[in-house]
Write a structure and sequence with these properties.
8-stranded mixed β-sheet; 8 helices
Length: about 375
Amino acid sequence: MATYDCIVIGVGGIGSACLSHLARRGHRVLGLEQFDVPTDRGSSHGESRVIRQAYFEHPDYVPLLQAAYDGWSDLEEASGHSLYQPTGILVAGPADGEAVAGCRLAADQHNLAIENLTAAQAMGRFPGLMIPSELDVVFEENAGFLFVEDCVRAHVEVATANGAELKTRERVIQWESDGKGVRLLTDRGRYEASRLIVTAGPWAAHLLNGLRLPLTVLRKVMTWHADRSGVMRIENGAPVWFIETPDGNFYGVPGTGGETVKIGEHTRGERVADPYTVDRGLLASDLLPVRHMLKQFLPGVSPEPSKHAVCMYTNSPDGHFIVDRHPGDEAVVLAAGLSGHGFKFAPVMGEALADLAESGTTDLPIGFLGLSRFREP
């Protein structure tokens, strides 16, 4: 039976970062992934992921984001790949809504640079967007997007260059622990390790079923649309954008050298009973809100998609991550419930999980993401 210092189950955005950190620290580490790496079966695919610092979800994420920016820069240097595209981000919504007010709060608490714009000023700077006059607008220059599959590949390349092993298309059937070490059974073999890190995305609740994690998995659709006007392309200065509307919170990523704009809706989604059988087709109900939004806010973009992709959000009840040690097993560490906004944190989450696996603690400010917030008082 092969023996390791640490085994990581799930080698997507967070798991690949764990492998990289552990391998660079000199640990003998194994990554187990039931699909390919990268894969389009989970939550870390679709060409791009937005990254920003004036974080409306909660100001406590900002120090982690600042560490994540450093981590992505370090990964670019270590891997030799360009992973981040700066564009800035425009956020629009009601003044008393979650998005704009949250950006301003995070910026105020952490002394971040953002601009407050009127709708007219925003449209003058970014003519592809139609912003109703009643909406408030903020713009953060220090934002952009990550090339998501390239990021996963880069973390894995650095990990394997430093001795990590990766086994793909190998599914974990069960694991057990005596508190001092773990043993795993897969559909292809048996392994043991001193520590186990579970970063399994939509499959986390199943692998950690004894914890009864309060997670909900949602089907999320991303679509790509032709930019008929050309103004929503990176080379023409288009930003990433996020608009809070009564019909949902929509985001867009400008075309990367091509002629399509990526569109997603962040708040809704069909509940997934089984991640293995999620519908990966494009449904009429997926397109209705997108068509309506594009007609209202991006009239120069075709309402009909040229392609689509389906991923999954694994949501916690409060929308915040769960990053902690297993409360009943010192040998097990987990990250789950990243709630559709976790990928940008991959380098710092990988570092935090590696710390927890090594010593049981970390100096990174992840206390607000612990499991204790869901326990009975």
